[in-house]
Amino acid sequence: MTLLEQTGTWPETGGPDLADPSLYRDGDPETLWARLRERSPVYRNERTDKEPFWAVLGHREALEVLRRPEIFVSGRGMRLDDSPGATEAASQRMLIVTDPPRHARLRHVMNAAFTPRMVDRLRHTVRATAREVIAEALERGDCDFVDVAARLPVTVICDLLGVPPADRSFMLDRTMTAFGHAGPGSADRAAAARAHTDILLYYAELAERRRREPAEDVVTALVQGTVEGRPLTDEEIYLNCDGLVSGGNETTRHATVGGLLALMRQPEEWEVARRADHPMETTAQEILRFTSPAMHVLRTAARDTELAGQPVRAGDRVAVWLPAANRDPAVFPRPDHFDALRASNRHVALAPGEHYCLGASLALSELTIFFEELVSRVELPEPAGAPVRTASSLVRGFESLPVRLQPRTR
After folding, report:
1. Angle (nearest 5°) at CA 216 between 214 and 217
2. Number of folded domains in the chain?
3. How far, in Å, CA of 373 to CA of 380, rounded?
4. Is the whole-model pTM more than 0.85?
5. In this structure, what CATH number is given to the domain that contains residue 368?
6. pLDDT at 11 > cutoff 50
């Protein structure tokens, strides 16, 4: 048992390692973040046999890091403990590990796919898929809501990329195996690697198809786009498809599961959300704040600076702990309470700033529409077993949430 577990405190030197995945399966990280934030909104995280980093826990400090890309750069990695070789291979090629000015040019290429007609098509896909998966779950009655929530984001991302309907069951299977559970030891890593290889090979086939047969989708935008006067390489196309699939899949899936769990634990908020005139987009924003599925985003200091009075040196790693910033009581009254009508919700779940989530509006639409359909068709779900969290410092998510669903009768 650690000193923190025994007494609720730790010595002035040393302290908990926020990158330890075991903190997030069975622990109480919200209390830990709050205690650390009370000491300082920027925490020096020492590690055994690994490089230390600064953990940013305060909301104001998080925005300072996220909105200063000239000082806190992304090209040297976006996640703690990533493979240096993989980071180097993706740097300045994959959107999330690309710095200005190239970042804006690559983002412009990908944004070109989001035409009004495409956005309308995606919203139709979201609504139709939500109705289908909820109806299937109601037929089963008892189900694991993690499996229910997985279907929607994968289907929408497939539509966004331009994956034909006939191939979507393949992509659902491969993405659930490759990205189903984040964190070391939480899945069969060999099977995940094989599934990821299958997905990369599929991107290659789809890119070739879109060169011959252009359509309104992201893959077409990537194969037709140019950055700094040259077309994107195949590697750049595949890397950015991968970024969309992994990011879009995990964020929405775990937010959906976490949002339902919050509503189950606060039934009065479920009753608020099911009112006919309820602004469900407001609740969707609160789901993003409260669940914050992306645990941290990493930056590297490009030069010496200061953050909340702490001396940050050039080369230091700075990890913004998004769910901790989203529980900062200086910004969010009653931060540990889920409020379906929370106003002025300035959460950072989608990392505002230069790297603001490319699919932010799509994620918000998915959550809004899914919960509109859920509360209109289902009585408040009942637990059918204990929720199981993922052991991961990358994703604040779930391996399982057993529930019992019944059709709405009133």
Report:
1. 95
2. 1
3. 13
4. yes
5. 1.10.630.10
6. no
